[in-house]
Amino acid sequence: MSIIITLLVFTFIVVIHEGGHFLMARRCGIFVEEFSVGMGPILLKHKTKKDLLVSLRLLPIGGFCRMKGEEPDPEHPEALPEPDSFNGVSVGKRALVVAAGPVMNFILAFVLLLIFNMLMGFTSRQVAAVDADYPAAQAGLEAGDTITGLNGESVHVYGKISFLLMNYQEGEEVKLEAKSADGTRKTLSFPLKYDEELQRYRMGFTVAARGSLAEEISRQGFFPALGEVIAESFWYTGFEIEVTIRSLGMLLTGKVGIDALTGPIGMVSVVGDTYQEAARYGFMTVLASISSIIVLISANLGVLNLFPIPGLDGSRLVFLAIEKIRKKPMDPKIENIIYIIGFVLLFGLMIAVAFNDILRLIH
Predict the structure, then answer these.
(1) Domains of the chain by residue range
(2) Where does 123-210 sit in CATH, by number?
(3) Assessment of whether the complete model's pTM goes beyond 0.70
(4) Which of 107, 182, 291, 335 is the most exposed place for a label (fewest CB within 10 A)?
(5) How far out from the chain centre does Cα 72 lie?
(6) In terms of Cα–Cα distance, which of 161, 315, 178, 168 is closest to 236?
(7) Average pLDDT over residues 74-80
(8) Within 13 A of 333's CA, how many CA atoms are on the CB side?
(9) How many alpha carbons fall within 13 Å on the CB side of residue 167?
């Protein structure tokens, strides 16, 4: 079951990604030859009136969008591209088509968060209660305050607080920024206190939970409630993107090792554990848990695809930028060599990540 759910999740995310390329290609006047769900041999196919081949393939491991003239004809490399082909439109339009895939991943994450927050509610940044025995209360934090910043960084979602405190050192002071109910802004500095029961450092306050959209409309009114849930979904999508970028930065600078990465094998284990735990609480909990995984993977995939790694959308954007500057495309031979080197390095990384995933499963 874990493998099936993982494959379906990845396929869904990739198809949405490829759907971004497809929609933008059609918008830019590029003829799309085939849009496929899955890989491998064709199970079902249908040709539309506009000669688009829509196919369902055997292996549920993604999908693809094949555009006319995406690759130059090896037998006629000097031939001019046709006007309705990928290389026949302007650099700007091609860049829009390439970027549309990652953008669609971000949109998917936002939409799922929006639906989830509307139905289930979310954790706000508004302080519900302050423990008098903890430093936050002694520094002046009060119930009704809204957390707006921590250690010089803006905080738009509650999850960022935990993220920024991951590497807290004993005795270190944190700088908390908050806004009271009357609009007064506060800047509070204090160390954290260790909670023996929870075995972690705490500031010593709890935050208010928001209910479903229907509950919040009855409490706040339609537009305030809707505005709050849209803002929460937007900022949380941005937070997921930020965490991905920061994590990659820590990986590149050596602050975390390659063993911290998780690949498809590891994701099967994560999805399986999540499914089994959520199944105890009913279908809606399973749906919410799987949706949260889709949000995480979709945001990660969107960011990773924008990195200038050969074989990913980011590298194509770099080549398009070079073409724009040079007023002519790069030499196809040089471009192919760069792609081959990139694929070798990427494949090596995938093997290393898979090896770490297997070791984790064994242990």
Answers:
(1) 2-119+262-362, 123-210
(2) 2.30.42.10
(3) yes
(4) 182
(5) 32
(6) 161
(7) 62
(8) 0
(9) 5
Residue 363 has pLDDT above 60, yes or no: yes
With 0-12 / 13-18 / 19 or more C-beta atoms within 10 angstroms meaning exposed / middle / buried, residue 80 is exposed
- Per-residue pLDDT of 209-264, as tens digits, reads 999 999 999 999 999 999 999 999 999 999 999 998 988 888 777 776 666 666 66
Do residues 106 and 237 lie in contact, with contact meaning Cβ atoms separated by under 8 Å?
yes
How far is residue 345's CA from residue 285's CA, in Å, rounded to a whole number? 39
Contact between residue 40 and residue 55 where contact means Cβ atoms under 8 Å apart: no
**Residue 135 · residue 203 · CB < 8 Å:** yes
Catalytic residue among 18, 177, 216, 240: 18
Cα end-to-end distance, the chain, whole Å: 22
Distance CA 265, CA 271 (A): 10
Asked if residue 148 lies in contact with residue 141, where contact means CB atoms within 8 angstroms, the answer is no
State residue 20's pLDDT score: 96
- pLDDT > 90: percent of the chain: 53
Q: Contact, 193 vs 134, CB < 8 A?
A: yes
Query: Over the stretch 160-200, which tens digit does the pLDDT of each residue have?
Result: 998 998 888 888 999 999 999 888 999 999 999 888 888 88
Q: Comparing C-alpha atoms, which of 312, 262, 303 is closest to residue 6?
A: 262
DSSP H helical segments within the chain, as ranges? 2-27, 91-120, 135-139, 159-164, 213-220, 222-252, 264-279, 283-305, 313-326, 332-362
Instruction: Tell me what pLDDT residue 265 has.
Output: 67
Q: Tokens 């088509």 sit at which residue?
A: 97
Position 51 pLDDT exceeds 70: yes
Contacts of 23 (CB under 8 A, 6+ apart): 100, 104
Q: What is the DSSP string of 150-213?
A: ETTEE--STHHHHHHTTT--TT-EEEEEEE-TTS-EEEEEEE-EEETTTTEEE-SEEEEEE--H
- Here the tokens at position 208 are 């208010």
